[in-house]
Amino acid sequence: MSGGQTAERGGEDRSALEPLFHGGNLAEAARLFPQAPQPWIDLSTGINPNAYPIPAASLEAYHRLPAPSALTDLESVARLAYGAPPASSVLAAAGTHPILTSLSRLLPHARVAILGPTYAEHAHVWRRAGNAVEVVQDLGALLKSDVAVIVRPNNPDGRFEPRCVLDDLLDNSRRTGQLLIVDEAFVDLLPPGSSVVDRLPEANLLVLRSFGKTYGLAGLRLAFAIGRADIIAPLRAELGPWPVSGPAIAIAVRALDDMSWLAKARVEAETASQWLIDLMMRNGLPATGSALLFHCIDHDAAATLFHHLGRHGIYVRRFEDQPRRLRIGIPPADAELRRRIAHAFDTFER
């Protein structure tokens, strides 16, 4: 393999059976830093810290199983919110992970190429289903696989391939039948037109969107897959009749239709993002990548900074396989919490 490529067969890789470490585990933070001041400031997840105001859901949404018409309504609202073409199909699920798991079961012998390094669950899920997985570092290496995966903007480094750069991949998926998966979990707050969803159904494309990150409601567990009908239909059958909870449907229908809130959230995220960039820069820790909701640094002092922030009650995302890297989420719009964050950075000594 060249260019840092790796290939593994899931059935031969015992690590595919082990759960992966993710951000947001404040119990682990408390274990590592038992003397840290409270409350914890969790900047480890990349979730919007300014959540959508939750509307009251009726008791019936909790008491009864969701009606098929309610799920249809949710997917219709999502189609409009995400700009999906009328000829495409939209599927709601309890997070991106069930979508990926179902898809890997439907394609158990596919050769999968993933542009990386990236969100580790993509490779993990496909390997666990027994697929041959290759993590590559350039777009051209994706062309000959059965399934190609791109996270855009990328997690954790914010890499974002322009639309024109993806044209060869999109055209290749149309010509060869390769399934191109574009994970757009962090695209919602970027300028309109950043998504590739408008290339449906021309391309053999599956676009993934995450509700919880943008709307700060990750606990609802809600995501969407958008693709051609022949791709979505077997996924829907695999997920079963109640893929999303009634309360999640009730809340998301209102939130996805609230374009004024989304516009305000974009401005708030841009302001918080710039505040964090400025803070990092003045302390000699420039961002090496960004996706608005988070920034990534690559620095010799990353491990020292992780522990320094932890002792100040600030939890950020570290990566065991990339010890120079930290991902730092944007702060909430709270003056006292931002004062604590600024003090922690300003007192950091390398």
Question: What are the SSEs and their pairings?
Answer:
Elements: E1 6-9, H1 26-32, E2 41-42, H2 59-63, H3 68-82, E3 89-93, H4 96-106, E4 111-115, H5 121-128, E5 132-136, E6 147-151, H6 167-176, E7 179-183, E8 205-210, H7 211-215, E9 223-227, H8 229-239, H9 246-256, H10 259-282, E10 289-290, E11 294-298, H11 302-311, E12 314-315, E13 317-318, E14 325-329, H12 335-346
Parallel strand pairs: 2-12, 4-5, 4-6, 6-7, 7-8
Antiparallel strand pairs: 1-5, 3-9, 8-9, 10-11, 11-14, 13-14
Helix pairs in contact: 3-9, 4-5, 4-8
Molecular structure report:
With 350 residues, this protein is an alpha/beta fold. The chain contains 12 helices and 14 strands. It has helices at 26-32, 59-63, 68-82, 96-106, 121-128, 167-176, 211-215, 229-239, 246-256, 259-282, 302-311, 335-346; strands at residues 6-9, 41-42, 89-93, 111-115, 132-136, 147-151, 179-183, 205-210, 223-227, 289-290, 294-298, 314-315, 317-318, 325-329. The strands form 3 sheets. It has an 8-stranded mixed beta sheet with strand order 1-5-4-6-7-8-9-3, sandwiched between helices. β4 (111-115), α5 and β5 (132-136) form a beta-alpha-beta unit. The longest helix is centred in the C-terminal third of the chain and has 24 residues, at 259-282. 43% of the residues are buried. Residues 1-14 have low confidence and may be disordered.
